[in-house]
């Protein structure tokens, strides 16, 4: 047994639908501006040269919670619903044609964002970490391991019963195979890596007491209240 100076952190995990097993999270990669309408609402344009990324600590993940906290340091904490894929294997130099063989499950997630902090970081040309890599800010539904959704499956989010975000996965600019192929040129992808694939238009703030429901087609994968 290793004699640790302090207790080692526990491996963050996702629950798996219809299974007692858990999925251990290694890293969380997030794709920026992957829906044209969201890029426009953020005052940007889509970079068609290549996808780009930021990351969140695996320790900032929450699995299918009934509630999630509003963090300190923001007065504009935004929801971003995203389709998320989990890798069961990886490698480098993965081709788009072989990429999906590495996907072991998928779900929807919320890339929660301190939007005010992000706007200031953009203005000052500073990194986004304190806006994006926020404790409890990577909120995932149960991992679905029984196949992939239809290419035009509808990603949707309601806030207190009102639809705020809704778009088919086919609106994504970079497909998951393209993202995996590109990322594997930058990182040694491996089992446990999770990719949040970007959000469609309609992001907005949540406050304590707000209820957010996230669905893929008619399947509810997240139903939580902020506190
Ligand atoms: Mn996002």
Describe the structure.
Helix content is 14%, strand content 34%. The longest helix has 9 residues. The termini are far apart. The structure holds manganese (II) ion (MN). The site of manganese (II) ion has 6 residues, from loops. The site of manganese (II) ion (MN) has 6 residues, from loops.
Strand content is: 25-35%
Output the strand order for the largest sheet: 4-3-14-8-9-11-5
Cα shape: globular
The CATH topology label is Fumarylacetoacetate hydrolase, domain 2
Gyration radius from CA atoms, angstroms? 17 Å
How would you summarize what this structure contains?
This protein has 227 residues and is α+β, with helices and mostly antiparallel strands.
Give a topology summary.
Elements: E1 13-15, E2 22-24, E3 27-31, H1 36-41, E4 53-56, E5 61-63, E6 67-68, E7 77-79, E8 81-87, H2 96-99, E9 103-111, E10 113-114, H3 115-123, H4 129-132, E11 138-140, E12 154-159, E13 162-168, H5 176-183, E14 193-196, E15 204-205, E16 211-216, E17 219-226
Parallel strand pairs: 3-14, 5-11, 6-17
Antiparallel strand pairs: 1-2, 3-4, 7-10, 7-15, 8-9, 8-14, 9-11, 12-13, 12-16, 16-17
Bound molecules: manganese (II) ion.
Provide key terms for this protein.
227 residues, alpha+beta, Fumarylacetoacetate hydrolase, domain 2, seven-stranded mixed sheet, five-stranded mixed sheet, 5 helices, 14% helix, 34% strand, binds manganese (II) ion
């Amino acid at each position: 047994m290793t004699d640790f100076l302090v207790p080692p952190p526990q491996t963050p995990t996702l629950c798996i639908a219809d299974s007692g097993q858990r999925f251990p999270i290694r890293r969380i990669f997030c794709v920026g501006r992957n829906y044209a309408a969201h890029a426009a609402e953020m005052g940007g344009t889509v970079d068609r040269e290549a996808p780009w990324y930021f990351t969140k600590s695996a320790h900032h993940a929450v699995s299918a919670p009934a509630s999630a906290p509003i963090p300190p340091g923001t007065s504009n904490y935004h929801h971003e619903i995203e389709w998320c894929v989990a890798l069961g294997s990886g490698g480098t130099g993965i081709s788009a044609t072989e990429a999906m063989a590495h996907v072991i499950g998928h779900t929807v997630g919320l890339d929660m964002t301190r939007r005010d902090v992000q706007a200031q970081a953009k203005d000052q040309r500073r990194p986004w970490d304190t806006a994006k890599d926020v404790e409890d800010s990577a909120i995932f539904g149960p991992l679905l391991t029984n196949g992939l959704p239809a290419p035009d499956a509808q990603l949707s989010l309601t806030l207190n019963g009102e639809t705020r975000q809704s778009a088919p996965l086919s609106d994504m600019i970079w497909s998951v195979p393209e993202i995996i192929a590109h990322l594997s040129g930058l990182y040694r992808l491996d089992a446990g890596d999770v990719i949040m694939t970007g959000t469609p238009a309609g992001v907005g703030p949540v406050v304590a007491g707000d209820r957010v429901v996230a669905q893929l087609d008619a399947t509810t994968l997240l139903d939580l209240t902020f506190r």
